[in-house]
Design goal:
Blueprint: H1 2-32, H2 43-97, H3 104-126, E1 143-147, E2 150-153, H4 158-162, E3 165-167, E4 170-172, H5 174-187, H6 190-243, H7 247-272, H8 276-280
Antiparallel strand pairs: 1-2, 3-4
Helix pairs in contact: 1-7, 2-3, 2-6, 3-5, 5-6
C-alpha cells in the first residue's frame, strides 16, 4: 500500500511539474510573441518552419547578389554615360579645329584636351572599385545568381563596350578612334581630320547602344529584386503564421493551467499533512 501511495505521489509531482513547465512556456509565448520554440511544440509546424527558414536564407543570399549587381550596373552605366559625354566633347574639339581661324596656340590646346579625353576614357573603361573588381568584365561577363536557375550578366565586357566597332568595314576601338583624331590634328590634314570625326560619331553611336543595353540589365535586376521582395514577404507571413502566438488562446490556457496547478498543489498539501497510519487505514 505504501509503495502504491508513493507511486501516486510521484506521478502527481511529475504532473504538477509538467503543468508548471506548460505555464512557463505559455508566459514565454505571451512575452515573446513566439509559441513554436522546439519540435515537441508542434512537429509538423516545426518541419514547415525549418523549410521556411532555409528558403529565407536562400532569399537573403539572392537579395545580397541583387544589391551587388545593382551597384556594379550603376557604376557601369555612370561610366558609359561619362564616356558618351567625353566623346561628344571630342567631336566638338575636332570640329572646331577645322575652323580656318584656329591658330597654332588653339591647336595645341585642342591637342592637349584630346589627349586628356583619351586618357580619361581609358581610365573609365579600366576602372576598378574599392574591392578591386573591374567596372566592366574582361573577356566574359560574370554571371550572378539571383534566383533559382537564374544567373544574370550585370555588366558588359570591356571588349564589348570599346573594341571591335565596325567603322566602314574596319574594326576599331574607342582608343583607336581617339588616337586617329589626335594624329590627324597633329598632321593638319583636313581629310584625315574629317575621317577621324566620322569614326568618332560611329563610336559614340556604339556607346549609346551599350548604354541602352546596360539600362536593360539594370531594369532586369530591379524586376527580379521586386519579385524576391514579394516572395520574402510571403515567407515572412508564413513564418509568422507558424510560430506566432495566438494571445487569446494562450492566455486562456495559462489561466486554466494556473487554476489546475493551484488546486493540485492545495490537494497535495492536504494529503501530505496526513499520517502514514491515515494513508494505510
Amino acid at each position: 500500500m505504501v509503495g502504491i501511495t508513493n507511486k501516486i505521489m510521484l506521478a502527481e509531482i511529475r504532473r504538477q511539474q509538467q503543468l508548471s513547465q506548460n505555464i512557463v512556456d505559455g508566459q514565454t509565448a505571451i512575452s515573446t510573441g513566439v509559441t513554436l520554440n522546439k519540435p515537441s511544440d508542434d512537429a509538423l509546424a516545426w518541419v514547415q518552419l525549418s523549410d521556411v527558414g532555409r528558403a529565407q536564407a536562400q532569399q537573403s543570399a539572392w537579395q545580397t547578389n541583387i544589391s551587388y549587381g545593382k551597384t556594379r550596373a550603376a557604376n557601369a552605366e555612370a561610366n558609359l554615360d561619362e564616356v558618351n559625354n567625353l566623346l561628344t566633347r571630342a567631336q566638338e574639339l575636332v570640329s572646331s579645329s577645322r575652323n580656318g581661324s584656329v591658330n597654332d596656340t588653339s591647336r595645341v590646346a585642342i591637342y592637349e584636351e584630346m589627349s586628356t579625353i583619351r586618357a580619361t576614357i581609358s581610365e573609365l573603361l579600366n576602372q576598378t572599385d574599392y574591392q578591386g573588381v573591374s567596372v566592366f568584365d574582361d573577356q566574359q561577363s560574370v554571371l550572378v545568381p539571383v534566383s533559382r536557375g537564374l544567373n544574370l550578366a550585370v555588366v558588359a565586357t570591356r571588349q564589348e563596350v570599346s573594341e571591335g566597332i565596325d567603322v566602314n568595314g574596319t574594326p576599331m576601338s574607342i582608343d583607336d578612334m581617339l588616337g586617329q583624331s589626335i594624329a590627324a590634328l597633329q598632321s593638319g590634314d583636313d581629310d584625315a581630320v574629317a575621317t577621324s570625326l566620322d569614326a568618332m560619331k560611329i563610336g559614340q553611336n556604339h556607346i549609346t547602344v551599350e548604354l541602352a543595353r546596360q539600362g536593360v540589365r539594370s531594369n532586369r535586376l530591379d524586376v527580379v529584386g521586386d519579385r524576391l521582395t514579394d516572395i520574402d514577404l510571403d515567407l515572412t507571413e508564413r513564418r509568422s503564421a507558424l510560430e506566432s502566438t495566438d494571445l487569446t488562446e494562450v492566455i486562456s490556457n495559462v489561466k486554466a493551467q494556473l487554476m489546475q496547478l493551484e488546486a493540485a498543489q492545495s490537494a497535495f498539501a492536504r494529503i501530505n499533512q496526513r499520517t502514514l497510519f491515515d494513508l494505510i487505514s
